[in-house]
Amino acid sequence: MSNVVQLEKRGSVGIIWVDNPPVNALSQAVRAGLASELRRAFDDSALTAIVLACRGRTFIAGADITEFGKGPLEPPLQDVIRALDASPKPIVAALHGTALGGGLEVALACNYRVLSRDAKCGLPEVKLGILPGAGGTQRLPRLIGVERALELIVTGEPISAARALTLGIADALVDGDLADGAVRFAEGIAQERPLPRACEKPARLSEPDAAAFFERAEQGALKRSRGARAQSRCIQAVRASVELPFEDGLRLERRLIEEALDSRESAALRHVFFAERKAAKIPDVSQDTPTLPVNEVAVLGAGTMGGGIAMVFANAGMNVILLDREQSYVDKGLEIIRKNYAATVAKKRLSQSEMDARLGRIRGTTRYEDLAGADLVIEAVFEEMALKQEIFGKLSEVCRNDAILATNTSTLDVNAIARATSRPEQVIGLHFFSPANVMRLLEIVRGERTSKPVIRTSMQLAKRVGKVGVLVGVCYGFVGNRMLHQYYREAQFLIQEGALPQQLDKVITDFGFAMGPCATSDLAGIDVGWRIRKAQPKPPPGERYSGAVPDRLAEMGRFGQKTSAGFYRYEPGNRTPLADPEVEAIILQMSQELGITRRPISDEEILERCLYAMINEGAKILDEGIALRASDIDIVWLNGYGFPAHRGGPMFHADTIGLAQVHDQVRAFEKQHGKVWTPARLLTELAERGGTFVELDARRAQQ
Ligand code: CAA
């Protein structure tokens, strides 16, 4: 008898309970337990039906990802599934929580499935760079039709219990106690024969031309996945459910998953999965640190950022006060929020009643006294230290002593802002990324005096509002923008030396970013950086200046998409960037003015200079303790800047190239381009001893 899987007899029904916290993953012990308890239930002649259910917060949430890459551990999941397929007695899977991946595949091999009303189920394997590998690609199309199965498998998105019932994944939904309901269901069908088995049905495709259907699916996947292979493998496997007998389909699925498990893409995506969860853990802020209640949030500044932040909290059910200096600014901010919600309603992604409820939670004001009841205040005004300090001084006067006082600054010194208050321990940076209601990243900036309860509350709050919170330290630009600065610098130097925006952006999008740096500048507005640079001292003579081309474009009124001209030109009402001969002429002229003889620049050089500039800065950030882990830097770049997830983030990507190789090339760039390329001390150290960032993180975690 196993500890994690146990058979309970309730009259003529045997309940096989899985109890493997936290998420009942299919570890070796669970697989072995399932195999043995199934045998016991089959052999017990007093049992006429079997229920498979789980203790704790969820039905089986999938294979145990920590076992991936560790070689086969007996028994394989396929053996358990084969036992389910061959069961002489009806088996009812009882699903609650999140029945995902291998968990749902186990359920699909049972004869019936009942779900609690709030259960979710899905096949998210594609998000780990693999495909359902326990028969899911062969059983699901046979159960619910090929089109619907393919959509579930290729997107990896979970569906609700109600949807599962409509699709035919669920046979019934259960109110009240799930095990009781499942037992009742099992008693009702105990004598029914033949037993329904997904594997015995044909896979139905509505479209007559299967080849054309799969071809289209493949083209769509190629477009969406930017070089990742998992979606294609999913399509290939589902195609087999139509074209091959069941057993042959299973064999193909097996071959594809083995290939996928060995891929860099899957290693990267598994890294991302665990990195995201590690980011939530702060070594010196323990799980029992008290937290502060946050129900009422105030946002200062009703501009684009402030409005977006207000929406984040209203969406999560919190009351929001939006403050600005003048009523007209408040009104304008509220109107933009209303329009944003209305656009989502028009796209049918939000109901009118939900929009009304969210809007109803946001109220505008111009009076600081109205902030007296706020649990959290987030300042999102211009990036101007004097203004921010004045505001934080006022907040000290009007806010409760235990209110969290946060700044959304993207560059300024959080400690200097904190010093403007009477309680620096309550001050923290909450750096949202634009558009705040869309981007997942939240940089949580810890000041030198920020208290642990404030840090822990902020980390938990990030999760509550659907963001990935990453704790960072104070420096110019924190983690994300500090690295972005280096990346953009190199992009502009490459343009000065011989590349054109379209070549540069293509290299970056071919690597997997959604947009290249020039198209992104056009989207964000070239004038934004131009105004910031104008306020800063010019670099000393002899030092290269990366702002030359964008400054010239901005001076000509080419601010980007909003003026239909920037690094590219744009047709009216169209956001597609088009190469512009006028820009090419400006660039050639700038090179001449800078005394640079243009040369052909290879795609390889573009990629290396853009990525290695970012990686080298990341190593400095890690060495200075601004980021706690290399994997935290990856999470920042994946969620805030569109770094391709299937590459794992910049630091993981550096590991896959090999740090010695990255380091040697950084040194070579230093020789060519000077001290901006001096390798980070930590990069040199790791390269010399053959280390990796992943190994460094693991070592530090043990200390
Ligand atoms: N294997 C191992 N550990 C897992 C796991 C899994 N499948 N799923 C979650 N965990 C761990 C997490 O790492 C975390 O551990 P720590 O507390 O040590 O950080 C813990 O369980 C709790 O996870 P979350 O913090 O994510 O908890 P949550 O309540 O927010 O979310 C969840 C729960 C929705 C199940 C989420 O964890 C999740 O999406 N898990 C992955 C599900 C998945 O991808 N399943 C498919 C696996 S691949 C597969 O099944 C292949 C196949 O075909 C056989």
Set out the fold topology.
Blueprint (H helix, E strand, L loop, with lengths): L4 E6 L2 E6 L9 H16 L5 E6 L22 H9 L5 E5 L2 E3 L1 H8 L2 E5 L3 E3 L13 H9 L1 H10 L3 E2 H7 L4 E3 L3 H12 L20 H16 L4 H14 L2 H16 L2 H16 L16 E5 L3 H12 L3 E5 L3 H20 L5 H9 L1 E4 L10 E4 L5 H14 L5 E4 L6 H5 L8 E6 L8 E5 L6 H13 L3 E5 L7 H18 L3 H11 L5 H8 L1 H10 L12 H8 L25 H13 L9 H21 L6 H11 L9 H8 L1 H15 L7 H8 L4 H10 L1
Parallel strand pairs: 2-3, 3-4, 4-6, 5-7, 6-9, 10-11, 10-13, 11-12, 13-14, 14-15, 16-17
Antiparallel strand pairs: 1-2, 7-8, 15-16
Helix pairs in contact: 1-2, 2-3, 3-4, 4-5, 4-9, 5-9, 8-9, 9-10, 11-25, 12-13, 18-24, 19-24, 21-22, 22-23, 24-27, 27-28
What does this structure look like?
This protein is α/β, with parallel strands linked by helices and 703 residues long. The protein contains 29 helices and 17 strands. An eight-stranded mixed sheet has the order 12-11-10-13-14-15-16-17, sandwiched between helices. It has a six-stranded mixed sheet with strand order 1-2-3-4-6-9, sandwiched between helices. Strands 5-7-8 form a three-stranded mixed sheet. α4 packs across α5, α19 crosses α24 and α27 packs across α28. It is globular, with a radius of gyration of 28 Å.
Please sum up the structure shown:
This protein has 703 residues and is α/β, with parallel strands linked by helices. Strand 13, helix 15 (385-398) and strand 14 (404-407) form a beta-alpha-beta unit. Helix 8 (210-225) packs antiparallel against helix 9.
